[in-house]
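Please predict the structure of the following assembly.
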Amino acid sequence: MRTLVDGGATGLAVLSTVLVVAPLVAIFIYLIYKGASSLNLDFFTQIPKPEGEDGGGMANAIEGSGILLAIASVIGVPIGIAGGIFLAEYGRGTKLANAIRFTADVLNGVPSIVMGMAAYSLVVVPMGHFSAFAGGVALGIMMVPTVCRTTEEMLLMVPNAVREAALALGVPNWRSVLSITVRTASPGIITGCMLAFARVAGETAPLIFTALGNSFSSADLNRPIAALPLQIYVYALSPYDDQHRLAWAGALVLIVLIVLAVSLVRYVTSRGVLKGAS
Amino acid sequence: MGVGIEVTTLNAWYGTNHTLQDINLNIPANHATALIGPSGCGKSTFVRCLNRMHETNPIAKVTGTVRIGDIDIYADAKPVEIRRRVGMVFQRPNPFPTMSIYDNVAAGLKLNGYTNRAALDEIVEKSLKNSALWDEVKDDLKKKSGASLSGGQQQRLCIARALAVDPEVLLMDEPASALDPVSTSKIEDLIFQLKSQYTIVIVTHNMQQAARVAEKTGFFLNGRMVEFDSTHKIFTNPSDKRTEDYITGRFG
């Protein structure tokens, strides 16, 4: 009887695992089936051809996504980490910290299209036009709450004994926080940044009213810029079969890039130094 | 060289909890002084008042005077300056987990802006020799992390780290209570050697340990210091009934 129950429990666990993994595998297989045939060197080197013409690629969108994510990271990572440090090291138990924590949690749940609208009214309207900068700001704001909360949680995992050890050596508090606590928690903080990064990498909605999209290659932060998710969105709605195929290929490239980012996270966390701490 | 410690009417609180009441005590320079007493009697709080670590807890409060050498530590200096002169070793070994053995020992100097590499190498070697760890780690100083050592080695690493900033006083809060007997005896040997150069204050639950390493012993009970005398007198002929009850194992 016991073996039977045990077997049943194991079976359920295996079944659940399969159910968790199956959608990802199915999406991946379907993307490869639909998109792999359109993946060629042109996809990575050419910009889109005029409507109706076959061929062309998404070089501008890949490059644009790279630029947008760079801006987003430059904005979101420092603000998020600084916020997390405040929550864990300075504001513990204060009303201000509770308010910030609550705000971050709410911000995390705000639909991405609303972030786009916020960036539209805060950046696009004052500037008078759509721009890469506005898109980067929208994505950057979206990264802040995730980075902030994971930073806080990772810092709270650092044993108090480590902080005391630094203070007892006569190290000033700010120095102890930056060089000891943050450094000890850094693998976890990096994981949080990568997750936030991977999440905004696939966002389309906040870019619609901010980065807008661009059929040409552009590195000008002051002008509209292309992005992979935007380009996929536009192509998927187009009436041309060739653009549908490019959209599938774009989706495949996007998911591969995200899988690469998550693998990097796995690599970083498996080397986690926190595990060695007692 | 070590300096003496002069404590006058020291009182300490955690929130509303009056953990130390009117402590008066003179700790001699270049000797080991043991503090014994049951759990919660205030002996750990007391040593944390000697390097101003007590006040790192936001609900903690302290009054009274503590003179270390010629400095009144609550009036004349900032906490960081005091902590550089008064080193501390904690109950559980707490090396910096992300740092190599070398960086652990050098941490106190490096984080205070000391950059002379050749001098650092020398200080690290000297500190590790002083803590009797050098021979065990000299080949992988920069390769191994401090956290990869055994518990006893980690504690000696923490002692080396405290010695590297060249303190005058070394506070040890139950430094061997998390260690096995072999590591414990190594730590005790170490205390024996170090007390010629430093003033050592050691909190311990282990009365034999106090008897083995310390010239002077103080007995704490319920936030007060009941008796302070030579170790020999405390363990053979205490003047207070409560001390006698404690050392003969009638309570605590």
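Chain A is about 75% helix and 0% strand. The radius of gyration of chain A is 22 Å.
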